[in-house]
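Hello, quick one for you while I still have it in my head. Could you read through the record and tell me how the tokens relate to the sequence? No rush at all, and the record is pasted right below.
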Amino acid sequence: MLRVQTLPVPCPAHLIPVATSSGAFHDLYRNALVDGAVFVIIECEGNRWTVKADTLTTGSGHVVTDAVNAEVRAAMTRLVERHEVDWGAYMGPIYFMMHGVRNEERARELAAALHAALYGDLVPLAQAVPPTV
């Protein structure tokens, strides 16, 4: 089993793990479950990237407020409307997934922002996905 340290909060984008193989995905998910941490990874799918996050791994002590979930959904909706991610994104409140991200750098940025938001820090999300003016 692949063992990595729990991601810091906030997590710098360059530390977001890549879990393109199913073995890596399952190992990283088990690590998050054991650590009681938010699970977040990126995966390469052809020439596009996917961001995945799951709060089920945190256990009952971690609460993502309705206000945070609303902000995450709004940001993900903006990404879909701006054609930065594919339609059909999973927008929580427990599992989050965005397909069709154009490159690894942007996938890492979005994953790190989502990770921070799921711990209650909305600033990185607002910076990564600014509201429509």
Notes: The first strand starts at residue 39 and ends at 45. The radius of gyration is 14 Å.
